[in-house]
Amino acid sequence: MKIRTIIIALAIVVASAFSIEGFAAKKKEKAQKKQEKSVVTMTTQSDTLSYVAGMSLTQGLVEFLQHSMKIDTAYMADFISGLEKTIESADDPQFKAYMAGMEIAKQLKEKMLPGMARELKDSPDSLVEELAFRGFIDALQGDTTYYNIEDASLLFKDLMSEAKEAKTEKLYGENRRAGEQFLAENSKKEGVTTTESGLQYKVIVEGKGEKPQATDRVKVNYEGRLVDGTVFDSSAKHGDKPLEFKANQVIKGWTEALTLMPVGSKWELYIPYDLAYGERDSGKIKPFSALIFTVELVEIVKK
To answer: What does the pLDDT profile of the chain (303 residues) look like in tens digits?
Structure first.
C-alpha cells in the first residue's frame, strides 16, 4: 500500500513538473514572439522619410521621461507597451474615455490637489486626498448622498475663505496690527495731514512749482522704510539720477501724494497697506505692511 502511494505521489510530482515547465515554456515563447519584430520594408522615399521621422522624434525623449516625467528607464518595455496599446486603440471610444480618466487623475494628483494643499498650509485645515478623490468621483457619478455639487461648491468656497483668513491672521496679523497702531499714533503728531483715503503726509519742504496730473511723467528722489525703520528701497540704489515714471504707474498712496505735491516739494508719506502693496508679498515688504516714504518731486517731464 505504501509503495503504491509513493508511486502515485511521484507521478503527481512529475506531472506537475511537466505542467509548470510547459507553462513556463509557453510564457517564454509568447514573450519571445512579442519581442519579434517584422522586417521593415521601405520601397519609396516616403517610406524612408516616414521611418526616419519616427526615429528623429525620439531625440531627447528618454531624458524627458527621466527628468520631467520621473520615469525609471528600467521599465522602458512597459512604456513601449503602453505606447503601442494607445496607438492601436486611439480611435476606440472606450479606450479614449479610459485614457482621459488617467490624464485627469494625473492632473488631480500632481497639480490640483497639491495646489489646494499649499493654499491650506499654515491654516487650521488640511486636505485629505482620499476624501477629495471620493468627492470627485461621487460628483461625476451623480451621487448626492452627502451634498449636491452646487451646495458642495458653495461650502468649499466658504471653507477655503475661512482657512485663508485664519492663515493670514496667523502669518501677518501682527504685521497688520503694527502698521495700524503706527498710523493711529502718527496721525496725532503735529504737522501730519490725513486725507480721506487714509494717506498721511508731512510737508518737509513746500515747493512752488505746478502739481502733476496722474498721467504726467515725473522725476523723483525717494527712500522707502518699514514702520520699524528698515530701509527697503531708495532712488540712490538705482543710480545718481532721480527716477522717472508716470504718476499713475506706482502704488495708490504715491499717485495720490504726487498729484497733491507742487514741484520742488519734499514730503514724508505714511501709507496704509491698502494704498501700498496690500496683501501681496513683495520681498522685504510683507503683506499688510504700512510704509513710510520720503519723496522729493524734482520735475514734471514735459513732452
So the answer is: 333 333 333 333 333 333 434 434 444 454 454 556 789 999 999 999 999 999 999 999 999 999 998 999 999 999 999 999 999 998 999 999 999 999 999 999 999 999 999 999 999 999 999 999 999 999 999 999 999 999 999 999 999 999 999 999 999 999 999 999 999 999 999 999 999 999 999 999 999 999 999 999 999 999 999 999 999 999 999 888 999 999 999 999 999 999 999 999 999 999 999 999 999 998 889 999 999 999 999 999 987
HEC profile of the chain: CHHHHHHHHHHHHHHHHHHHHHHHHHHHHHHHHHHCCCCCCCCCHHHHHHHHHHHHCCCCHHHHHHHCCCCCHHHHHHHHHHHHHHHHCCCCHHHHHHHHHHHHHHHHHHHHHHHHHHHHCCCCCCCCHHHHHHHHHHHHCCCCCCCCHHHHHHHHHHHHHHHHHHHHHHHHHHHHHHHHHHHHHHCCCCCEEECCCCCEEEEEECCCCCCCCCCCEEEEEEEEEECCCCEEEEHHHHCCCCEEEECCCCCHHHHHHHCCCCCCCEEEEEECHHHCCCCCCECCECCCCCEEEEEEEEEEECC
Q: Residue 2: CB partners within 8 Å, gap ≥ 6?
A: none
Q: Which amino acid is at 13?
A: V
In the block, which residue shows the cell 492601436? 88
296 - beta bridge partners?
221, 266
